[in-house]
Structure formats: C-alpha cells, structure tokens
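#struct-pred
JK: can someone run the complex with hypoxanthine? inputs below
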Amino acid sequence: MSQARIAVIGGTAMNEWPGFEAAGARDVDTPWGAPSAPLQSGRFADTPVIFLARHGPGHHIPPHRINFRANMHALAEAGVTRVIAVAAVGSMLDAFPPGHIALPDDVVDYTWGRSHSFSDSADAPLQHIDFTVPFDPLRGRLIALAGAEEGRHDGGVLAVTQGPRLETAAEVRRLVKDGCGMVGMTTMPEAALARELGLEYAVVTVCVNWAAGMGSGDIHGEIAEHAARGMARLRDHLSAVLPRLS
Ligand code: HPA
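RT: done, structure tokens with the ligand placed:
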C-alpha cells in the first residue's frame, strides 16, 4: 500500500475513476466485516490517493446495504486521515442544476436502520461526537484551493434519504421545508462514522437530476443526459485540489 493519506470514496457514476492510475488493490477485513471493495492505491493528478468504490465492484451494493463501518474502519487502518467523499444528488435549488457540483456544509439525516455508530457494544467506548458542523474544515480548503470554478457551489444542506427508491414529490416538498437544497442516499452514516474515527471528511456532490417533482418529469432521462458533465466537472475540481492538499 502506498503512503497515501487521502482517500476518495466514489459513489454512483464514479464506480471507476477515470484518470486514477491504480498501482495495486488490497482486500482487507475489519472487525465490522469487509468493506465494499478492495482498497485501491494509486495516483490521481500525480497525488498518492486511496480509492474505494462505495457501491462495490460493478456497483451492486444498494445504499442501505453498504457496510459503512467496514469502509471507514478499513480506510483509517490503511493510514488515511482525509476523506473526500463523492455523492450523486438530486437538486432542489434553481442555482444548482444538473451537471454542477457542490460542497454542502450541512446535512439532515432521514436514513433509518443503518449501522450508524462504532459505539455499539458494551466494550466499545460510548462517544457523543459533536456533529454541529458535520463536515471538516477540509471542506473550506477544497473550495479555496480550487479558486473560482464555474458550476461549483459553496454550501447547501444535503438531505440523506434511505433509498434505493427516489423520493416522492411530497417528500421533496418536505425536504425543501426542512431547509434542504439537495438530496442523496449515502452521506449518512458515512460522515458521522468518519467523525467518530477522527477523520477529516468532506463531501463533493454531483448533481445528476432535479429532485422528484421539480424537473422534467423524467429523472432517469435527466441522469443519462447530465451525469457525465457533472463527473467531468468533479474530475477537474479534484485535479485542481488534490495536488495542493498538503
Ligand atoms: N434523490 C436521492 N438520491 C439521489 C438522487 C435523488 O434525486 N439523485 C441522485 N442520487
């Protein structure tokens, strides 16, 4: 395994990471079970990095079945201290259309039934992590290091829903009333587990569709049309920031 201390977790539309030069892959096990996929070590934009495909090889693991504890434990054991998580989202914000990326600054967790803490047995230390600000200052650095970029937004509240189905129009209206601006399915409990482990964690969201009831009425058509543009923007952003993260 390389000395990389940065990990990138790829989500839907980033099961593979174009531009990532893989040098090796390692199957690991953890007290919480196996992570979604082997940890791949390699380089992106000449920067050592570990890549983990959140949905597994071939994108077969649905959001509610991801072993988030194993994923985060495996990264920490591999010496990772900084995690840049990528998540596809639907947007409820006019200013954040499909094809754009954002670094949200807050989260509302609507998921249920997921193993969401390492404080889960009598012999594990009970932690009440401070989650007032769910993303690490790494978030601000990822914005500042990239400079002005068209189609990249600073902030927004990310709703995390259970999936794998998309939301109803009424559910999306409720998310908007709750103050959310975008919706995805995987940032929780991932962000909280990262905090429990003391990892720096920030998420870059890629908008691939308008949230249910807010767009053309053809969500899958929107995803087919816009996901590639969003992913290209994400690649540009990561190329700009990864070499500058010391
Ligand atoms: N809702 C939830 N998760 C998503 C969406 C959405 O509209 N698009 C991509 N991931």
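RT: quick notes.
Helices lie at 68-77, 138-146, 169-177, 187-196, 219-241.
Residues 10 and 53 are 5 Å apart (CA to CA).
JK: thanks, will look after standup
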